[in-house]
Amino acid sequence: MYQATIANQRFRFPDLRALMGAAGERKAGDIGAGIAARDELQRAAAKLALAEVRLSDFIDQPLIEDEVTATILAHHDREAFAEIAAMTVGELRELVLSPAFPPLWRAGLSNAITPEIAAAVAKLMSDKDLVLAAQPLRVVTRFRTTIGQPGVFAARIQPNHPTDAVDGILLSVLDGLLLGCGDALIGVNPVDDSVGSIVSILTQLRAMIETTGAPTQSCVLGHVSSQIAAAERGAPLDLIFQSIAGTEAANASFGVTAELLAQGREAALASRNQWDTSPGPHQVTYFETGQGSALSAGAHHGVDQLTLESRAQAFGKCFDPFLINSVVGFIGPEYLADAPQIIRAGLEDHFVGKLQGVPIGCDVCFTNHVDADQNSNDDLLMLLAVAGANYVMAVAAGDDVMLGYQSTSGQDVQAIRRLLNLHPAPEFERWLTETGIWHDGELRELDAPTLARMLGSTGALTAGRS
Is this model's pTM higher than 0.90 or not? Predict the structure, then answer.
């Protein structure tokens, strides 16, 4: 039993699960699930009670016991956790916000903080706190590019097409490259998730990368099992992708287990050994998460959206990811009803990821039937850039014509880089400079001969066609 008194009223919470739900900021999904506080007074009381909870309680009283929990705890640094186990959530919050925290975090404390603890700390923070605390926590990952370091703001080109037409995909890739984007990833959400389609798109993307010489990596966001099958057919698989959630039951609804994700990672490693002999670490997984995914699957076990998002990220971390992406506003108004809720969720997702040592980025986005707009999208984009997000999306004109939602564009990415003096990944910036796309930190419009030389004599739009 947890309790707190506020305004001469005593509030009681039967267990950690109820306390965590009541302490969270207002979210449509939590309200609909009956998890949220009934009013602001109860929410304030829950925050007071949560601040007094010892961190050891989260180990002694797991909110959920399933495969996700077991996988996370198998990677948990219990020796490092022993150093903070007696602290309260409130005390950890004060430490996290202090200048003394980043060195401790880099020394290994990131592996001691469980997802439930990360979520609990976030519930005691303002939006400003979430930005301030996350900004110095840098998670650096490498494939053909290196992202996550201070001063780097990367972008994933998302060249989706409503019919998977190769010309449309490659034109969108070219648009992103000429806007200085693609250093995080060229990642296509396919309409056709068949193995043959994945093989075809991966082959075309590889041809585009080789023709332009751009140091980047590609991925087709099909089901992990289909990507494994594509690799077995000889497709040039760089990163293996899968959407994941914070409970075993929700992952089962996606057709995903820890064993399958491990198989996918091994397939990507084998493909890298075949297609890419460059030295360096082998971070070959890419996961997407988002608040509300477990609730939408009826698999939330009475746990709030933020805590489950934190668990999903921690689960993904167990497979050494190159990227994890919170698709924050994509799930719709039943879970995040409006711009303030989307902005709050984006900052929470980024913070809990960084606190746990996750290479977190964000698809700053909203669906067309939610109470948000491009201005609120710009607000979250700027806040996440200040907070040190590893990357965001670069969608042509910010409007995904296949998935039918609004995101960020290559122009948005370039504007943020100019505003905050940020740069692409260093390998990618060198390529941009060598090709003439980039000069003294500014994009240049290429003349026709230069563009033709960059694309090669056959042209990238015909490269790799059968």
Answer: yes
